[in-house]
Automatic annotation (TrEMBL):
UniProt keyword list: Oxidoreductase
Pfam families: ELFV_dehydrog, ELFV_dehydrog_N
Subunit structure of this chain's protein: Homohexamer.
Gene (name only): gdhA
Species, as recorded: Arcanobacterium pinnipediorum
InterPro entries cross-referenced by the UniProt entry: Aminoacid_DH-like_N_sf, Glu/Leu/Phe/Val/Trp_DH, Glu/Leu/Phe/Val/Trp_DH_C, Glu/Leu/Phe/Val/Trp_DH_dimer, Glu_DH, Glu_Leu_Phe_Val_DH, NAD(P)-bd_dom_sf, NAD_bind_Glu_DH
Family in the record: Belongs to the Glu/Leu/Phe/Val dehydrogenases family.
Record's protein name: Glutamate dehydrogenase
GO molecular function: glutamate dehydrogenase (NADP+) activity
NCBIfam families tied to this protein: PRK09414.1
Gene3D superfamilies: Glutamate Dehydrogenase, chain A, domain 3, Leucine Dehydrogenase, chain A, domain 1, NAD(P)-binding Rossmann-like Domain
Source domain of life: Bacteria
Domain Glutamate/phenylalanine/leucine/valine/L-tryptophan dehydrogenase C-terminal: 203-443
Length: 445
């Protein structure tokens, strides 16, 4: 690492002790942008690096709520308004017991560059809570969402900060959050949240967008090698929003997804994942992947295991951060995997990324490959601003065009900085440069 960059990194370590996920995300970006920093003295003079890794605002708050037995619970809420150089803060809310300040900061930091890559004029933010929606009744989830939004509502707005879903925050939670915001604000401000229901301001394709965009990106990567998805076996982790619609799109392009997982274990389904059954189990019944496996003749549920020992051509990690390590990559490559594209945010550990690069397989980071979700959220904001609802085909065409633009920009930028085919360097430099240039224009703030 260059001395100047190392100094900035060490200062960040000093200032943010015990934030491993955040430091991991910062380190990856700092290492990638080294050649850019070498060429841009103006970035150093304006301390862009030190400013870009410091959130503009960090909000932490108490969320007190009552369960169905009138027991009082206390959770912690977060909203990190990381960078507004390109537009209002934009990024999801995660409700999961593993949420900490470090997790929300890493997600917010990644979001800055992802949002820049979409070209949609949105800044970066992220939020959430250590609340676990699993096993809670609808009424308990509603009371939690209302308590959470009561504080969050002071800090967001269509032109200020626009949250959306993430792990544990789907259509149900967005509905309760929007209802409470409307009650407090006393106005129908549709653009304050994205991922809304289709009959109250939502956009067609938003539900599918991250998974569809991911597979569009993977297809473009294969296209560079003269290949496509047709006939490929796809190993998918996770079983939520991103995983489900990645599988649906992979099947539409002639591939066959053969696995899913959740925090209790992995499912191998050699006949190909039945997407309609998966939606029924996960979206309607709120069940587990073991419930899916029980209804499929040849599927195996492997308790406590990951999906990475299953053989296939393509791996799409779509569950959570650091879910694939160096040994997993070695196993995947030995078993024939030629491409890894991140549906989740930061699912590969730093060692796993290095292993993928050493093996010369295709690897795409989440900030490029999973940008379809937030890109479509920006399209939802555009529809809200114009009081319009676009047709499914129109939104899907726009999503596809954005993903192909990001793909092209990653490759062109990687070429420009002497790292041909390196999607990580391409994504980090292309995203960073857009934000840094806007920060230069806007002065020292
Ligand atoms: P969902 O809540 O819909 O699904 C998450 C899935 O991942 C579930 O199957 C969940 O299983 C599993 N999972 C979560 N944590 C763990 C864990 N610690 N170990 C094993 N499995 C786990 O979330 P999404 O599909 O929306 O999000 C998945 C990933 O994609 C996240 O990294 C998110 O940040 C990223 N992403 C999401 C976008 C979106 O539009 N939704 C956009 C861009 C990125 P279980 O139920 O057992 O916890």
């Amino acid at each position: 690492m260059d001395k100047y960059i190392e100094d900035v990194y060490n200062e960040s370590l000093r200032r943010n002790p015990i934030q491993p996920e955040f430091q991991q995300a910062v380190r990856e970006v700092l290492e990638s942008v080294e050649p850019l920093l070498a060429a841009r003295k103006d970035y150093r003079d304006a301390a862009i690096l030190a400013r870009i890794i410091e959130p503009e605002r960090q909000i932490m708050f108490r969320v007190a709520w009552e369960d169905d037995q009138n027991n009082v619970h206390v959770n912690r809420g977060y909203r990190i308004q990381f960078n507004s150089a390109l537009g209002q803060y934009k990024g999801g809310l995660r409700f999961h017991q593993s949420v900490t300040l470090s997790v929300v900061k890493f997600l917010g930091f990644e979001q800055i560059f992802k949002n820049a890559l979409t070209g949609q004029g949105i800044g970066g933010g992220k939020g959430g809570s250590d609340f676990d929606p699993h096993g809670k009744s609808d009424n308990e989830v509603m009371r939690f969402c209302q308590a959470f939004m009561t504080e969050l509502s002071r800090h967001i707005g269509a032109d200020v900060d626009v949250p959306a879903g993430d792990i544990g925050v789907g259509a149900r939670e967005i509905g309760y959050l929007f209802g409470q915001y409307k009650r407090l604000a006393n106005r129908n401000e549709a653009g304050v949240l994205t991922g809304k229901g289709l009959n109250w301001g939502g956009s067609l394709v938003r539900t599918q967008a991250t998974g569809y965009g991911l597979v569009t990106f993977a297809q473009a990567m294969l296209g560079e090698k003269g290949e496509d998805m047709d006939g490929k076996k796809v190993i998918v982790s996770g079983s939520g929003n991103v995983a489900t619609y990645a599988i649906e799109k992979a099947h539409a392009l002639g591939a066959q997804a053969i696995s899913i997982s959740d925090s209790s274990g992995a499912v191998y389904d050699p006949d190909g994942i039945d997407v309609e059954l998966l939606k029924q189990v996960k979206e309607v019944e709120r069940g587990r992947v073991s419930d899916y496996a029980a209804r499929r003749p040849n599927a195996q549920f492997r308790a406590g295991e990951h999906v990475w020992s299953i053989a296939g051509d393509i791996a799409l990690p779509c569950a959570t951060q650091n879910e694939m390590n160096e040994a997993d990559v070695a196993t995947l490559v030995n078993n024939g995997v030629k491409l890894i594209a991140e549906g989740a945010n930061m699912p590969l550990t730093p060692d796993a990324i290095e292993a993928a690069q050493r093996s010369h397989i295709l690897y795409a980071p989440g900030k490029a490959a999973n940008a379809g979700g937030v890109a479509t959220s920006a399209l939802e904001m555009q529809q809200n601003a114009g009081m319009a609802q676009w047709a499914f085909e129109k939104v899907e065409d726009r999503l596809r065009a954005i993903m192909l633009d990001i793909h092209r920009e990653c490759l062109e930028t990687a070429d420009e900085y002497g790292k041909p085919g390196d999607y990580m360097v391409g994504a980090n430099i292309a995203g960073f440069r857009k934000v840094a240039d806007a920060m230069l224009d806007q002065g020292v703030i």
